[in-house]
Design a protein that fits this description.
alpha+beta, four-stranded antiparallel sheet, about 240 residues, single chain
Length: about 240
């Protein structure tokens, strides 16, 4: 099943107005890495106690959300683009990731999200399942780091620093080029290479591409038809494989 997620990045100046929002996008585009979402930069995931705008059960582990529709992805990315313009964050670039995960693995993780009073079908994929589907290699460092992080959902681990210090002492991060602005010390261990084939729509340095194709996303087209529309208008999904 094809799943879609939009990311944004700031390639021009990573430090200007940067709070880590673009870590995920930079790691994807520059390093071919899947990285935790912005809301997981903090060690203790405080939003696990909040009511999120969807019909999923309360979250109890790190996850990542994907749209099932390319149109929905473009629509939401465009709204975020407009909000960035309104707040003068004009340095951001935008990309859309497409991954393919077996339907039988994710059919129990599909639900509805509420986006500006619109209902969109989405999948909330456990981060561990995402790793097993897209990396497909045993990585004990990743498994242990995610286990430590996920424990913060059930209880507060004390002392955090001692546990993490011991983990880092025993496990040296292999990739020192990871973008990790504002992230906790476990963050580098929670990034992993996408070893399966994937596709990405990334019109290099075209800051206004979402504005140009937004009208097309309102048409009722399936994902492949929407891709043809993008290709016709000069935008294409690039296939990548680690």
């Amino acid at each position: 099943m094809k799943l879609y997620r939009y990311v944004k990045l700031n390639e021009i100046n990573h430090t200007l107005f940067s709070h880590g929002y673009e870590n995920e996008g930079l790691n994807l585009i520059k390093n071919g890495l899947m990285a935790p979402s912005y809301r997981y930069l903090d060690l203790v995931h405080t939003s696990s106690f909040d009511t999120l705008a969807n019909n999923f059960p309360k979250e109890n582990e790190m996850t990542k959300y994907f749209f099932l529709s390319l149109q929905d992805t473009i629509d939401w990315a465009y709204k975020c683009y407009r909000r960035d313009l309104d707040t003068f964050n004009t340095l951001y670039e935008y990309a859309i990731l497409e991954v393919d995960i077996k339907e039988e693995l994710i059919k129990f993780f599909i639900g509805c999200g509420y986006y500006d009073n619109k209902i969109k079908t989405e999948a909330r994929i456990p981060y561990n399942l995402l790793f097993n589907s897209l990396n497909q290699e045993e990585n004990k460092m990743f498994t242990k780091a995610l286990e430590i992080y996920n424990l913060s959902y059930q209880r507060f681990i004390f002392p955090w620093n001692k546990i993490i210090r011991q983990f880092i002492k025993e496990n040296k991060s292999q990739n020192k080029d990871i973008y990790q602005k504002g992230a906790n010390k476990l963050y580098p261990y929670l990034c992993f290479p996408i070893n399966t084939s994937y596709q990405i729509l990334y019109p290099n340095h075209d800051y206004n591409w979402l504005n140009k194709i937004n009208e097309y996303s309102k048409e009722k087209l399936n994902n492949e038809e929407m891709k043809l529309v993008l290709i016709k208008n000069g935008y294409n999904f690039e296939s990548r494989k680690n």
